[in-house]
Amino acid sequence: MWGAVHSLWTYRTGGPGTDYCFDVVQTPEGNFLAVGFRDTIDADVHMYLHCVNDQGDSLWSRVIYNPGGSSASQVEVVDDVGYAIGGQLGGSDPRFPDFYLVRTDLYGNVLWARSYGTTLIEHCWAMRRLSDGGYILTGIALNEAGHWDISVVRTEPDPLVVHDINSTSTLTFALSQNYPNPFNSTTTLSYSLARPDLIELSVFDLLGRRVAVLSEGQQTAGDHNLQWNASAFPSGVYLVRLTAETKQETKKVILLK
């Protein structure tokens, strides 16, 4: 007999009302983003995002408020720079929801949102990103006879994603400011490479001593994200340095416990 799969950790969170989670995805940093909806004091439910790290510790949460309420059914990572979330939107009359598609950055901040509705009531249960950069949403729709039909909506390509493989690359060598900063124990570091390169991403104290090597070796061109768990380090100011063969960038980060 095969052995049982045991849990590594359990995490529970909730507001004063009812919270639901319908999907979860692993983030580019190795964390986990759960989506669903949360009851709020205005008597509506609203799309809810909650991110935890790989140890089950809460990192951040977002409630996306809309008139008439909204909820999330499915989430996907988009090119390691954000998320696409499918669900439904109550709109001006919460009794007649529409399909709802939301694009956010890596921290749940809304970049754009769009609803799709043609009948009295539509519920979106699934969403997928397509190879052309668009999205397809599916669920059920109430017809004029009072019966439920299958409903499928396909969108045009995402305006925030570049799809022309022949276009000139705009990638640069850059180290972004960590987020959050100041931070308590864990922070996210992002950098980009204009071409494949041999790099080192290290942390130094103010005396110039290297205290951690976060990443090193040959890496591909494009955007990269990782998380620094500084729980073993004392509070203070540190310098994060990205070094390639011919370039170097440094950012000051503040650890507060």
What tags apply to this protein structure?
elongated, 257 residues, mainly beta, 18 strands, 4-stranded antiparallel beta sheet, 54% strand
Description:
This protein has 257 residues and is mainly β. The chain is built from no helices and 18 strands. It has strands spanning 19-26, 32-39, 45-52, 58-64, 70-78, 82-89, 98-105, 110-116, 122-129, 135-142, 148-154, 174-175, 186-193, 197-204, 210-219, 222-229, 236-243, 248-255. Strands 1-2-3-4 form a four-stranded antiparallel beta sheet, with no helix packed on it. A hairpin with a 4-residue loop joins strand 17 (236-243) and strand 18 (248-255). Mean pLDDT is 86; it is low at 162-169.
Name the helicity range: under 10%
Q: What integer is the average pLDDT?
A: 86
Distance between the termini: 47 Å
| Secondary structure tally, helices | 0
| Strand arrangement in the largest pleated sheet | 1-2-3-4
Strand tally is: 18
Q: How would you summarize what this structure contains?
A:
Helices cover 0% and strands 54% of the residues.
Write the layout of secondary structure elements.
Layout: E1 19-26, E2 32-39, E3 45-52, E4 58-64, E5 70-78, E6 82-89, E7 98-105, E8 110-116, E9 122-129, E10 135-142, E11 148-154, E12 174-175, E13 186-193, E14 197-204, E15 210-219, E16 222-229, E17 236-243, E18 248-255
Antiparallel strand pairs: 1-2, 2-3, 3-4, 5-6, 6-7, 7-8, 9-10, 10-11, 12-13, 13-16, 14-15, 14-17, 17-18
